[in-house]
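step 4 of 6: structure.
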Amino acid sequence: MNEISIFALIFSAIRLATPLIFAALGGMFSERSGVINIALEGLMLAGAFTGAVITYEAGNPYLGLLAGMVAGAALAFVYAIACIKFQADQVVSGMAINFLMIGLPAVISGAIYDSSGSTPQIDKVYLLPEFFNRLSLASILAFALVPVCWYVLYKTPFGLRLRATGENPAAADAAGVKVIKLRYFAVVLSGVLAAAGGAYLSIGQSSLFTRNMTAGRGYIALAALILAKWRPVPVLLACLFFGLTEALTIQLGNIKLPSGENVPIQFIQIIPYVLTIIVLAGFIGLSRAPKALGVPYRKEK
Amino acid sequence: MKIIREILSPLIAVLAAFIVGGIIVWLIGDNPFNTFYLLLSNSFGSLKDVGYTLSYATPLIFTGLAVAVAFRCGLLNIGAEGQLYVAAFATAWVGIMFGGTVVNIFGKEENWSLMSLPAIILVPLCILTAIVAGGIWGMIPGILKAKFGSHEVINTIMLNFIAIALVSYLTQYYYKIPGDAILQTAEIGEAAQIPRISQFIPGMPDFVPLSIAFLIAILMCVLVYIFLWKTKWGYELRAVGENPSAAEYGGISPQKQIIIAMTISGALAGMVAIGEVLGYRHRYYDGFSAEWGFLGIAVALLGRNHPLGVFIAALFFAVLQRGEIFVDAFTPKISKDIGWVLQAIIILFVACLQMYSKTTRTKGKI
């Protein structure tokens, strides 16, 4: 492999990691507060769809990105009501959100554009800008977000309360933390970030929304979050690693072996998933989730 | 009282979903009553309609039962999709390797098989393969949970991706007919194919893909009921689901039950291959599942994790699936994806009403 293709590979890895970084950082806030976020996939789709529609209609990617984030927040709020108010099973309601976002965008785009498969193509000049050698503004934002999240999580009173809520909500409550409110906020924040990652897919990486275009990236972001043990800087590294494996599968997919067959990229594809299982089983250090993860909080009377 | 509550809450969820769905349809600018009429009225009108509806219900019964059995042990099996993929490929493999000469898609005769077995041996062997392959793929997250305490939800999601990649690799490199543009295996031998219902019922068109797999699905509903409520093993499995520490105190090993439950769950999910491979497509076909593994969660939830409930819920979702096509064709604005929207809202409402989280679930690392 020559130098040029290594550069291409790195840029491609960054591009592919970008939506994952947004979504995984979003998931980090929700999970650190004690709410599992299987819904990342659906939240990303909400951002991708709304981002594409608004960008197409208004001709402004920033407005599209913003609208996508608002849609993500709204959908995350619905998820939060189910998980926190009704104490529904978090995994099940997360799956419901994901199902909803397979169907709803298709129904809406079928009605307004007469095509349930995808939204209309957005003109290239209206997409999120790219600098240097195809480095998207969104990628720069994603990288910048990592130290911000680190600071918020470890150096602010909000971050302390968030972590305390995820570990021991009863004790946090006793110390004066508004557990319920904090969890709502954390879940909505995860919706905003995941949706931003989704919007980048439809108005940065490509130029339209297609049905189920995240193709499991929400779940992969969740895996990255687990690999990173719920910490911001390792989240960045895990997402870059996942981006790299995806970039490799794309590049190697075009190479023919001497036998005339394509390189079996499936074995590279599964590396992140196998690794996640291994880490989760505790073979590589201890993977310790926030203690109260998945447990609805009921205030003692 | 308990029975009324068990029946009432799914009904409320369905009703609420139709109200919310109706509002969405109305906001989009279409007629909700017309849409829902089309959605619900096209499933049982003719023998053909019934055939299609029941054939749509068949995989959902299997995956619904799969999720329900795991639920009863306090586990959430999101991996039915991966389990049925592995099972479908394995089943097709046995059907190819022991099925004798077949005519391929290019109209040429070809023989992939090691030996040719008669139908009386090959069909049971294929069914057994579906059960065992699905069971093994389900057992993996079971063992991981029992031995290492790692959460089955994440592991099953990861195993779904791995299963699909693995099976597409094997298909692409070893079992595809050279020159075939579609990612699918060669055809299974005739001796491995199971009969369609149309052979027994006059008036049922041949093209309706309803096979005797539907009867096997009904049989499994009965067997799962007997297993869960009439045997000691089922009792132990449910005991762990209801209260793992009490079960352990009573001498039941939660670890063992977790592995058993996930294995049975995977085996049930794998049985989707009976209808889809042996009865319908006669090959493994990439992307053959319409998210049945995930819809199984909805079916099990709506059916209150009871085999009879699963059967009814699967039938209901099959009605929606059949109706979607008519909604797509005969409403000016609503596409068939309205079915997905309704299913999603139903799950959300069932989850909210159920307060499922109040029953203890075996905890694990996420």
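step 5 of 6: annotate
 - The two ends of chain A are 66 Å apart (CA to CA).
 - The mean pLDDT of chain A is 89.
step 6 of 6: archive
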